[in-house]
Automatic annotation (TrEMBL), chain A:
This is Tryptophan synthase beta chain. The gene is trpB. One of its GO terms (molecular function) is tryptophan synthase activity. The keyword Lyase applies. PROSITE patterns: TRP_SYNTHASE_BETA. SUPFAM superfamilies: Tryptophan synthase beta subunit-like PLP-dependent enzymes (SSF53686). Residues 51-375 form the Tryptophan synthase beta chain-like PALP domain. Pathway: Amino-acid biosynthesis; L-tryptophan biosynthesis; L-tryptophan from chorismate: step 5/5. The modification N6-(pyridoxal phosphate)lysine is found at residue 85. The beta subunit is responsible for the synthesis of L-tryptophan from indole and L-serine.
Automatic annotation (TrEMBL), chain B:
The gene is trpA. This is Tryptophan synthase alpha chain. Belongs to the TrpA family. Tetramer of two alpha and two beta chains. GO terms for molecular function: tryptophan synthase activity. It holds the Pfam family Trp_syntA. Keywords: Amino-acid biosynthesis, Aromatic amino acid biosynthesis, Lyase, Tryptophan biosynthesis. The keyword Lyase applies. SUPFAM superfamilies: Ribulose-phoshate binding barrel. It catalyses: (1S,2R)-1-C-(indol-3-yl)glycerol 3-phosphate + L-serine = D-glyceraldehyde 3-phosphate + L-tryptophan + H2O. It is an enzyme of class 4 (lyase). InterPro entries: Aldolase_TIM, RibuloseP-bd_barrel, Trp_synthase_alpha_AS, Trp_synthase_suA. The active site is at residues 49, 60.
Length: 393, 263
C-alpha cells in the first residue's frame, strides 16, 4: 500500500488529508493526458514554436581543449525565458487548463521558475500568483519585474527564513485553501507524488534530445552526464534517458556554498540525512530533532534544504554520483565559461561546469562529457559583479 | 490493539460534547505554558492537544506558525517536551500533535515509549494521511493514532479513515489552514454522517472554530470541537497578564458553557 509513488524507499505523499484527493485527481489527469495524442501534439507544438525546442547541443571547443575532455553543452539557456523551467511550466499549465483550473500558483527561488510559470499563464490565459521569499524578492528584483510585466502577482513571503522553502510552505497553504479552482505548479522534481515523476517526465525531453544529438555528433553514448542539483529538475531531465545505460556515469553537482565543513551550503545529499519535507521522503538538511536547516548558496536556485526523491534513490542505489562545488568554484567557472566560450551561464549551471576541473583528473583524455547548461546568467550579473568587487578589495 | 484514548473519549462523549483545546508547547514561554497546564480546569476540557513545534508547519495558519517559531527560538525540542511533561501530573489525557519528520527523527518506537510515559495517549501527525499510517505501526499499544478526514475526502476513503483511526476522528472543517478555514457547514454535516456510519469513535471538528457560538453551532451535529488558533491568539493577547492561567480557564469556560447548551 505504501509503495505507490515511491522510488525505492524515497518519495511518497506526506501531505495533509485535504490534499490527498486533489493529488489523486492530478495523478489521474496526468496519466490520462500523458497518453493523449492531442495533448502531446499541443504541448510539442508549444515546445517547438514557442519555447524554441529542440535546444542545440554545442561542442565547447576551447573549454574542451582546456579540460582535455570533449565537452558538449546542452543549451537549455537558449530556451524561451532562459532556462529549462519552461519545459515543465508549459506542460503543467496546459494540463491545469485541461483540468478546468482557472488559477495557477507557484513558488520561486531565483525567479526562473516564477518567470516561466507567469509566461505559460500569459500564453494560455490563466490567472497567476507567485510566492517568493522576501529575501529572494530583494536579491532577484529583475525577475520580480519580469513576472509582474507578464501579468503575475508576486507575493513576498515573510515567514521562516524568507527563502524558497518558505515560499513552498506558503504555496501549499494557498493550495489547501483553494484546491477547487487552483493548480499548484511545483518547479522541481520535489513535493508529493505525482509531482516528482510528472516534473521529471516534462523535463525528460532534455535527455531524449541530447541522447539523439550526441549520437549524431559522436556516434556513441557519452562517458559522463553532468548537471547541477538543487531540487534537481534539470538533472533528472537529462539523466532520465541515460539511467538504463549503465556505462554512462551520471554526476549531480550540489551547492557546496562556503564548504561542507561549514553549515553554509545546500548539499542535501552530501551532508543531509533521510527525512520528510514538502510531501516526500528524501535527503534533507536538518538538525538532530528534524527541524529544517537554513541553507546557503551563491545560486538562489540551488538554495534549498531538500532534493528530489528520485535523486536520493539514484544515490542510494549507486546509479548516480553526487558531488559538490563551492560558491567560489562556481563563480570561477561562471567567468571561465563566459571568457572561453562567450556563454554567460546561470550560477546554478556554473556549478556543473566547475566540476569539470575535478572530472578531468579522473576521466581518460578525450572522454565525452555531456553537461546540462540549465540556464543563462543574465539574472546573476549584478550579484557576480558585487562578488568580484569584494574579491578585488 | 488497545485504544485507551478511544474508550475514554467515547465514554465522555456520551455525557457531554467534547472540548479539546490546542496549545503549542513552550508558548508564550516554557514557564507560562507549564503554568497554564497545571491550572487547567478539567471540568471544562476533555483532553488536551499539545503541539510539538516544527520549523515548517505547512498545515498551519499564521497564529500557530508564529507560536511554533517562538517556541523553537526558546529552545523547545521534542526531548524537552518529553522531559518537562514527565514531571506533571494532569487529570486529562494528552494528545501530541506534530509533523512526520519530528517523529521520524526521534525514532518512531522511542517516541511512543517516551511520550506514553509522559502522559500522552494519542498522536496526530498533520502530514501523514491514511497511506502513511503503516509507518507508525511501531506505536501499537503505545499511542493511539488519530487520523484526519476532510470535506474533500471521497466517501469510500472517509469510511476507511473512520475505521482505521483511533482515539477519535479529526475532521477538518473546510478548506484552508488552521485558524483560517472556510467552514462549509452543509458539506460538513454530510461528512460527519458518513464517518459515523463507519465507526463508533467520537467525531471532532477542528480548524476555524473561533468562538463559543461557532463551537455550539458545529458541535450540534458532531461530538465536539478542537480549539487551537483562537486560544493561542487569546494567549498572545494576554501573554503579559499576571494571571494568564486563570484567563485561559475563563476563555475555555465560555466554550464549555456554549457546548453544554446544546440539546
Amino acid at each position: 500500500m505504501i509503495q505507490k509513488g515511491f522510488f525505492g524507499e524515497f518519495g511518497g505523499r506526506f501531505v495533509p488529508e485535504i490534499l490527498v484527493h486533489p493529488l489523486e485527481e492530478l495523478e489521474e489527469a496526468y496519466n490520462f493526458f500523458a497518453k493523449d495524442e492531442n495533448f502531446q501534439r499541443e504541448l510539442n507544438y508549444y515546445l517547438k514554436n514557442y519555447a524554441g525546442r529542440p535546444s542545440p547541443l554545442y561542442f565547447a571547443e576551447r573549454l574542451s581543449k582546456k579540460m582535455n575532455l570533449k565537452v558538449y553543452l546542452k543549451r537549455e539557456d537558449l530556451n524561451h525565458t532562459g532556462s529549462h523551467k519552461i519545459n515543465n511550466t508549459l506542460g503543467q499549465v496546459l494540463l491545469a487548463k485541461k483540468m478546468g483550473k482557472t488559477r495557477i500558483i507557484a513558488e520561486t527561488g531565483a525567479g526562473q521558475h516564477g518567470v516561466a510559470t507567469a509566461t505559460a499563464c500569459a500564453l494560455l490565459g490563466l490567472e497567476c500568483h507567485i510566492y517568493m521569499g522576501a529575501v529572494d524578492v530583494e536579491r532577484q528584483k529583475l525577475n520580480v519585474f519580469r513576472m509582474q510585466i507578464l501579468g503575475a502577482e508576486v507575493i513576498p513571503v515573510k515567514t521562516g527564513s524568507q527563502t524558497l522553502k518558505d515560499a513552498i510552505n506558503e504555496a501549499m497553504r494557498d493550495w489547501v485553501s483553494n484546491v477547487d479552482t487552483t493548480h499548484y505548479v511545483i518547479g522541481s522534481v520535489v513535493g508529493p507524488h505525482p509531482y516528482p515523476k510528472m516534473v521529471r517526465d516534462f523535463q525528460s525531453v532534455i535527455g531524449k534530445e541530447a541522447k539523439q544529438q550526441i549520437f549524431e555528433a559522436e556516434g556513441r553514448l557519452p562517458d559522463c552526464v553532468l548537471a547541477c542539483v538543487g531540487g534537481g529538475s534539470n538533472a533528472m531531465g537529462i539523466f532520465h534517458a541515460f539511467v538504463p545505460d549503465k556505462e554512462v556515469l551520471l554526476v549531480g553537482v550540489e551547492a557546496g556554498g562556503l564548504g561542507l565543513e561549514t553549515s553554509k551550503n545546500a548539499a542535501s545529499i552530501g551532508r543531509g540525512k533521510k527525512g520528510i519535507l514538502h510531501g516526500s521522503l528524501s535527503y534533507i538538511l536538518q538538525d538532530e530533532f528534524g527541524q529544517i536547516e537554513e541553507t546557503h548558496s551563491v545560486a538562489a536556485g540551488l538554495d534549498y534544504p531538500g532534493v528530489g526523491p528520485e535523486h536520493s534513490f539514484l544515490f542510494a542505489s549507486g546509479r548516480a554520483r553526487y558531488v559538490n562545488v563551492t560558491d567560489q568554484e562556481a563563480l570561477d567557472a561562471f567567468c571561465e565559461l563566459s571568457r572561453l566560450e562567450g556563454i554567460i551561464p546561470a550560477l546554478e549551471s556554473a556549478h556543473a561546469i566547475a566540476y569539470l576541473n575535478k572530472l578531468r583528473k579522473e576521466l581518460p583524455q578525450d572522454s565525452i562529457v555531456l553537461v546540462c547548461l540549465s540556464g543563462r546568467g543574465d539574472k546573476d550579473v549584478e550579484q557576480v559583479m558585487r562578488y568580484l568587487k569584494e574579491e578585488s578589495r | 490493539m488497545k485504544d485507551i484514548l478511544g474508550s475514554v473519549l467515547r465514554e465522555k462523549s456520551q455525557k457531554r460534547k467534547l472540548l479539546l483545546p490546542y496549545l503549542t508547547f513552550g508558548y508564550p514561554t516554557i514557564e507560562s505554558f507549564l503554568a497554564i497546564l497545571e491550572n487547567l480546569n478539567p471540568d471544562f476540557i476533555d483532553a488536551l492537544e499539545i503541539g510539538i513545534p516544527h520549523s515548517d508547519p505547512v498545515a498551519d495558519g499564521p497564529v500557530i506558525q508564529e507560536s511554533s517559531q517562538k517556541a523553537l527560538a526558546l529552545g523547545v525540542t521534542p526531548r524537552l517536551v518529553f522531559e518537562k511533561m514527565q514531571t506533571l501530573k494532569l487529570s486529562f489525557p494528552l494528545i501530541a500533535m506534530t509533523y512526520g519528520n519530528i517523529v521520524y527523527q526521534y525514532g518512531i518506537k522511542k517516541f511512543g515509549q517516551d511520550f506514553k510515559e509522559a502522559g500522552f495517549y494519542g498522536l496526530i501527525v498533520a502530514d501523514f494521511p491514511l497511506e502513511a499510517k503503516p509507518l507508525l505501526d511501531k506505536l501499537e499499544n503505545l499511542l493511539s493514532i488519530i487520523l484526519l478526514a476532510s470535506t474533500t475526502t471521497p466517501e469510500e476513503r472517509l469510511k476507511k479513515i473512520a475505521r482505521e483511526s483511533q482515539g477519535f476522528v479529526y475532521l477538518v472543517s473546510g478548506k484552508g489552514v488552521t485558524g483560517k478555514t472556510r467552514i462549509q457547514q452543509e458539506e460538513l454535516r454530510e461528512v460527519v454522517t458518513i464517518i459515523k456510519s463507519a465507526t463508533d469513535l467520537p467525531v471532532l471538528v477542528g480548524f476555524g472554530i473561533n468562538s463559543p457560538e461557532k463551537a455550539k453551532e458545529i458541535a450540534s451535529f458532531c461530538d465536539g470541537v478542537i480549539v487551537g488558533s483562537a486560544l493561542l491568539h487569546f494567549v498572545t493577547q494576554n501573554k503579559h497578564h499576571k494571571d494568564l492561567p486563570q484567563l485561559v480557564n475563563d476563555f475555555l469556560s465560555n466554550f464549555r458553557k456554549a457546548l453544554n447548551e446544546i440539546e
